[in-house]
Write a structure and sequence with these properties.
By secondary structure, this protein is α/β, with parallel strands linked by helices. It has 17 helices and 7 strands. Helix 13 crosses helix 15 (280-289). The longest helix has 20 residues, at 241-260. The protein starts with a helix and ends with a helix. The model has no long low-confidence stretch (mean pLDDT 93).
Length: 332
Amino acid sequence: MTFEDILQNLKKKIYHPVYFLMGEEPYFIDRITDYIAQNVLTEAEKGFNQTVLYGKDTEPDTIITHARRFPMMSNHQVVIVKEAQNIKKIEDLEPYMKNPLQSTILVINYKYKSIDKRKTFAKLIDKNGVLFEANRIYDNQLPAWINTYLATHKYTISPQASAMMAEYLGADLGKVSNELDKLIISLPENTQITPDHIERNIGISKEYNVFELQNALGEKNVLKANRIINYFGANPGSNPITRVISSLYYYFEKLLVYQFLEDKSKNAVASKLGINPYFVQSYVTAAKNYSIKKLVEIIAILREYDMKSKGVGNVSSDPGDLQREMIYKILH
């Protein structure tokens, strides 16, 4: 069952006796848990029928005791176990999973790790409840996730604006959703969000960001690239060197992959590189400016400056100077 399936069922009041929510991406786990905590019971029912336990302070026997209670003046009781990854023998819940109480909704948050799906414990949860694994979103999947998130709230976003947010915020879905919510609150429904909206409401400069730096480098626009990198040097908090290097590394790595593609049609390139088809032309342009040999050299340069940014082989240069040196070597 997917995240969307689970939320849709909950909104239809289709409840399961167990929700075992595990995996590396806490955003999905928190969203499901918060929805159950806020919507299954009324405020009057919560006082007697909603319990929150914490893994480091509880044991499987205690959880089972709570789960086997019957609700008071309500059709359901909700038992939420947070930080369940800290429970030493989570498998000791197996006797309850064999026959969970239908009037209880037991929600187990097992963050940043997963149980073995091949074992009986996992199979019992999957048979009698919901076993959900929240996987991390890769960086190249983030723009599409942003589009989907906004679509559910009746908004759209331009490819440039989506790329700006993805490059600036990274794949921290909690952080990204918070920033998107700022836009949703500020703008009327059915608005197409643009770089101007992002600059005004979130504070990401539409001119001085990593996405624009990539474009400048791809076009070999020396003046624009230097103007952006000088801005980064003067504002290191908003554009830390490690983030800049990481973004450029993935950009030039994709450009190198592009050089070896046999099928360079728009859709094939977009699929292979994991980018919006809108941006394919920028890669076509950049590929004309950088040979395979130069791209290999650039990737080596980025690795070198990544080490220097962490203090290896760098005694005194500040991040701004390092970035300027790095951009010079890329462009020349």
